[in-house]
Amino acid sequence: MASSSFSLTFVSFSLFAAFYLADSQSFIGVNYGQVANNLPPPVSTAALLRSTTIGKVRLYGADPQIIKALANTGIGIVIGVANGDIPALASNPNSAAQWINTNVVPYYPASNIVLITVGNEVISSMDQGLISQLLPAMQNVQNALNSANLGGKVKVSTVHSMAVLSQSDPPSSGRFNPVLEQMMKAVVEFEKENASPFAINPYPFFAYQSDPRAETLAFCLFQPNSGRVDSGTGIKYMNMFDAQLDAVRSALNVLGDFKDVEILVAETGWAYHGDSNEVGTTMENARAYNGNLIAHLRSMVGTPLMPGKSVDTYIFALYDENLKPGPTSERSFGLFRPDLTMTYDVGLSKNSQTPTTPTTPSTPSPKPTVAVWCMPKAGVSDAQLQSNLDYACGHGIDCGAIQPGGACFEPNTVKSHAAYAMNLYYQSLGKNPWDCDFSQTATLTSTNPSYNGCSYTGGSS
C-alpha cells in the first residue's frame, strides 16, 4: 500500500516542481522573533527572504517597519496580538477596531497580511482570566476586520502549544485536556465559522529530549527508522512530526465535526546549540530536522490522516534571539545569522535547493571511474525504503518516471520506486559516495538495474 499511496499523492509535486523550486512556497513559513538587539534592518531581511523559497513570515507583534518592508514581495504575513492586549480587545469593540485600523488597514493589500493570531499559547497558560477573554477578543477582531471589508481576506486564529492535548500517543488516541475541552470547542467553532486555521506548535525536539534514545532521534529527524505502529488504526508512522499532527487531527475529530478546519503549524524547529544537559542540541541534528522537514513538506505526501497536501508550517526561527532568557537552546534556533549568512543550509535558497546533509567527509572517498548505480541494500524494510523515497523525491529530483503512467512505475512496489529515486538522487548530486548512504541502507553497484523501458541514470565521474 505504501508505494501506491506515494505514487498518487506525489503527482501534484512533480507537476509543479519546476515552479515551486524556482519560486517561494506558500506552505513553508518562518518565525521572525525580535527579542534581540543585533538584528539586521527589516529591508535587509525582506531581501533575504526574497532570495529563499520561504513563502510566509510570522511576527509575534505587528511591527510597522517589518510590515512595510515586506510590501510588494508577495510574502504572506502573520501578525500577532500580544497576550497583554487581549483584555482590552475583549472588553471593547472599539479597541479591536483601532487595532485593525492601525496595524492592518494602512498596509493591506500591498503587504500581504494573511492571518492575525490573537495571543500565543493562552489556553495552556492556565490563566483563567485571560482564557475567558480569548474568544471575545478573537470575535471583536473578526468583527473589526468585517467592518473594514477585510473579512475572509485576513483570517483570525490563536496559537496553541501541544500541552492542550492530554493524550497524543498513539496519534489515534489524541484528545484535548478535559479541563480545556469546552473552551477549545468554542474556539474551534469560531475557526470553522470563519474558515480560519487551527494553529499548533509541535516540537519533535522536545519529544526527543524527554525520550533521548537513538531510535527516537531517527524518528524525530525524519531519518530511516523502523517506524511506530498506531495500535488504534494499524497505521505505521515514520516520523514524529506526522504523528503529532495526526494526534491533533484525532483530537479535533473527537471534539466535533471539524474536518474542514485546517491545521497550521505555527512553530516547529530544532536548537543547534544548548547547555551540557540539553540532549540533541547539535548543528547536525538541527540541519537534519529542518532540512528533512522541508523535504517532507515539498513531497506533498502529507500525513496518514491528512494525505496529499502539505500543512502550512512556520519554522522556528529566522534569527537567533540573543536577549531571550532561559537555557542556551532558547537563543539557538536561528536559520540565519544577523549578518544574513546561513547558520546551516537546509535548501531554502532559490539558487540551491539541496541541503548540505549528509556531511561531506574531511577526506573524501574517490569517485568511481566506472559506471555505478546507487541501490538499496538487501533486507532493508519497506518503511525505511519509503523514508528514503520521500527524502530523495522531496529534494527536487524528477520522480515522474515512478508515477502512474511513467516508464518505471511498474513494478508498483516501494522497493522498485525507492531504488529509482535513490539512484537518481545520487547521480544528480554529483555521484559522491556520501550521497549513496541513506543512513547506511544503500550501496553502489556496477550492475545496471535498468529494465524494459525503464532506464536508470548511471555513469562514472
From TrEMBL:
Statement: the UniProt record of this protein carries the keyword Hydrolase? yes
What start and end residues bound the annotated signal peptide? Answer: 1-24
| SMART domains linked | X8 (SM00768)
**Gene3D superfamilies per the UniProt record, alphabetical:** 1.20.58.1040, Glycosidases
Query: Cross-referenced Pfam families, in alphabetical order?
Result: Glyco_hydro_17, X8
Q: Does the keyword Signal apply?
A: yes
MF (Gene Ontology):
glucan endo-1,3-beta-D-glucosidase activity
Ranges annotated as spanning the membrane: none
The record, for InterPro entries, names:
GH, Glyco_hydro_17, Glyco_hydro_17_plant, X8
What keyword terms does UniProt attach to this protein? Disulfide bond, Glycosidase, Hydrolase, Secreted, Signal
Q: Which reaction does it catalyse?
A: Hydrolysis of (1->3)-beta-D-glucosidic linkages in (1->3)-beta-D-glucans
Q: Looking at the record, which segments are called Disordered?
A: 348-367
| Principal location listed in the UniProt entry | secreted
Q: Name one GO biological process term.
A: carbohydrate metabolic process
Subcellular location per UniProt equals: Secreted
Enzyme Commission (EC) number: 3.2.1.39
User: What cellular-component terms does GO give this entry?
Assistant: extracellular region
Query: Which residue range or ranges hold the X8 domain?
Result: 372-456
Q: Which family does the entry's similarity section mention?
A: Belongs to the glycosyl hydrolase 17 family.
Q: What is this protein's name?
A: glucan endo-1,3-beta-D-glucosidase
Taxonomic lineage from the root: Eukaryota, Viridiplantae, Streptophyta, Embryophyta, Tracheophyta
The encoding gene: LOC111484236
